[in-house]
Amino acid sequence: MSLKTAEKPLDGNNMARKRRISEPFDWKNVKRIMINNLRQVKENKEIFITMIILPVLMAVMMPIITGVMAVMDPEALVAETGLSPYEAMTEYIIGFTLKPMFLLIPGTLSMMLAADSFAGEKERKTVESLLVLPITHRELFLGKILMSVIPSIFFSIVSFFIMGVEVNIIAGEIIPEGEPLFIFGDLSFWFMAFILSTFLSIFNVQIGVIISVRSKDVKSAQTVMGFLILPLIGFMVFGMVQPALLNNALMILGISAIIGLLVYIMTIVGEKAINRERLIATL
Amino acid sequence: MKITALVDVKNLTKVFLDKKNKREIRAVDGISFKLNAGEIFGFLGPNGAGKTTTIRVLAGLLPPTSGYASIFGQDIEKVGDRVRKHIGFLTENHGNYENLTVYENLHFFGSFYDIDDLDARISAILEEIKLTDRKNMKVGKLSKGLKQRAALARVLIHEPKIVFLDEPTAALDPEAAVNVRNIIRTLKSKDKIIFINSHNLEEVQKVCDRVAILNKGKILRMGSASELNKDIFGSQELLIKTKSPIPRDLLAAISDLDYIKNVRVDESLEANLYLHLSNLECYTPEIVKLLVNNNIPIMEVRPQSHSLEEIYLTLMKETNEDLIISQNKEVE
Questions:
Q1: What are phi and psi of B74, to 5 degrees?
Q2: Which helix (H) or strand (E) is B221 found in, with range?
Q3: pLDDT for residue B1
Q4: Which residues of B touch A126 (CB under 8 A)?
Q5: Are residues B295 and B242 in the same domain?
Q6: How far, in Å, CA of B112 to CA of B108, rounded?
Q7: Taking the C-alpha atoms of A201, A132, A282 and B32 in order, what is their torsion angle to the nearest 10 degrees?
Q8: What is the DSSP-derived secondary structure letter of residue A175?
Q9: Do residues B149 and B284 both lie within one domain?
Q10: Among A128, A147, A277, A279, which would you mutate to test the B interface (most chain B Cβ atoms within 10 Å of its Cβ)?
Q11: Any domain includes B137
């Protein structure tokens, strides 16, 4: 049964009561929460395997497959696209396939980790032990958010470099002299790996943590998040059929700005949506 | 100097909204009490009585809907989260990470408090709880009793002034429960306030100085076991064991005395006489004198109080009867 605290009548006394003393923010508390949660996630095989498999698949396997295809039969690529092998590789293989696929790394990882943030504590029956700690709710929730955001950004950036190195090693021979390297020479990919991925990770984690607060266990949190990842897949498909969307550095910055705005809105909404009381209501 | 209670609760109410059934649930309904240092206070009641909600409100995890509660003289709604540095809270589940060792758990939870030498404190608390030899064992590998002791170590790591214990011996075997109760008793000697939520009557009777009996969010009665006895059963019972059975004419004479409310002789042990007196302290010497004058050899004289279980069941019965009457009135 989900219970919500009844609103108390807002008389003068209650208005005064709501003004709690403001306490100094302590980053050490945030760090402690974060490190402990990462330790717990490491023990969760399902999440840990996904954290490894997804980047390996997207950043290691996909570039190998696409790169090898381009190198093995460049004529076919030219015949099909009417472009030079280098242009076809840049626009179609990297633009159509690798870029949209790359977005799956921050998109999925952040949600997987955020699902565990509070729902995992509920499953382990440790959530109340955390709630009674002498830490502010901002420290607690920021610890949980960073625990999901940092690995997601880390894996995205590492994947970007692995992807870039791999594609250039495999298909480097088709780069004409004087032309920039694949991936590393593409400003839009840099923006995607560093700016868009970061905002996307934070936004997903914000939503994920709210869902995790309201879910009884990790499975149900992941189920709800499964539906929420559909817009991301839709965006990826759109990116595949409209490569201009992801091949344009300004466009990437624009999309990042929109997601950044959503992050700002979610920060305000999240402050109200996630608190100790809501967590207790689902125990 | 004015002595302020460390915990002061006045008309505390907590109402939840059950969105599904569109109704309000008064989990805690206008309760009041005060607690002082060195006191073990028991909150007794059936499941859903409001025990856990009360301690969650006092620990600052839930805001009260109305009423007032203070800890160390400060309003719990104003003090902020750092006040929990002085609070220890043992939840119904042991609350430690099962994949971490006892030491790792204590180190993680202890790191949030200002403890000068955390390692030394961990060693001291493990010694106190008698868990030093399990320090490096994963909590998940411990027995239920040891898990509960590890949880107590976590709750006491920062030497809190107020300790809330929610069903501390639930699901423990008798030996483990005795161990936990012994630890609770040692806390009293350290001038801490210990607040125990329980539906284990025996446990509350054994360790608590005062008890509040709670049902449907309201405190039905509060006081020491002897105060509750007197409050609920009115007269007090005296047991007199004699070497030989008491003659019937003497029994009849005792029954006729003004201050005797009831006389009962244990049928299996004819020499056990139970007397209900209006005032135990006043009339016990008179009864003893009467028996001695009639050459009845007395082996033992002691007040016979009702167990907390009898008190509790009587109160619950009264409450349910009241509820049925009020519901019938509403129907009429």
A1: -115, 135
A2: strand B218-223
A3: 44
A4: 95-97
A5: yes
A6: 8
A7: -150
A8: S
A9: no
A10: A128
A11: yes
Q: For residue B308, give both structure tokens.
A: 């907390």
Task: Flag whether B97 is in a domain.
Answer: yes
Contact B256, B262 (CB under 8 A): no
Instruction: Using alpha carbons only, give the angle A106, A112, A115 rounded to the nearest 5 degrees.
Output: 130
Please identify every stretch of chain A with a pLDDT value under 50, giving residue numbers as ranges. Answer: 1, 9-18
Q: Is B96 at the interface with chain A, CB within 8 A?
A: yes
Can you tell me the distance from the alpha carbon of A100 to that of A105, in angstroms, rounded to the nearest whole number? 10
Same domain, B293 and B173: no
Q: How far is A197 from chain B (nearest CA, A)?
A: 32
Instruction: Mark yes or no for CB contact B81/A23 under 8 Å.
Output: yes
Cβ neighbours of A276 in B, within 8 Å: 61-62
Residue A154 has what pLDDT? 92
Residues of chain B with confidence (pLDDT) below 70? 1-5, 234-235, 267-270, 321-332
Chain A contact for B59 (CB, 8 A cutoff): yes
Q: Which two tokens stand for residue A163?
A: 């992807």
Does some domain include residue A10?
A: no
Residue A5 within any structural domain of the chain: no
Compute the distance between CA of residue A109 and CA of residue A197 in angstroms, rounded to an integer: 11
pTM of the model: 0.81
Asked whether residue B180 is assigned to any structural domain, the reply reads yes
Q: Are strands A3-5 and B87-90 parallel, antiparallel or unpaired?
A: unpaired
pLDDT at A13: 41
Q: Do A87 and A193 meet the contact criterion of CB atoms below 8 Å apart?
A: no
Q: Residue B142 is part of which domain span? A: 7-223
SS3 B11: strand
B74 touches chain A (CB under 8 A): no
CA distance B21 to chain A (A): 10
Check A125 against B93: CB less than 8 A apart: yes
- Tell me which amino acid residue A155 is: F
CA angle at A256 for the pair A239 and A146, rounded to the nearest 5°: 115
Distance from CA of A40 to the nearest CA of B (A): 8
Residues of A with CB under 8 A from a CB of B: 1-6, 8, 17-23, 29, 32, 36, 39-40, 43, 124-126, 128-129, 131-137, 276-277, 280-281
Backbone dihedral angles phi then psi of residue B107, each to the nearest 5 degrees: -70, -45
- Whether residue B175 is found in the same domain as residue B96: yes
In a domain, B78, yes or no: yes
Residue of B112, B144, B157 to mutate, interface with A, max A Cβ within 10 Å: B112
Helix, strand, or coil here: B76? coil
Partnered with residue B276 across adjacent β-strands are B237, B262
**Cβ contact (<8 Å) for A129 and B154?**
yes
Residue A4 to residue B19, Cβ atoms within 8 A: yes
* SS3 state of residue B202: helix
Chain B: residue nearest A121 by CA? B97
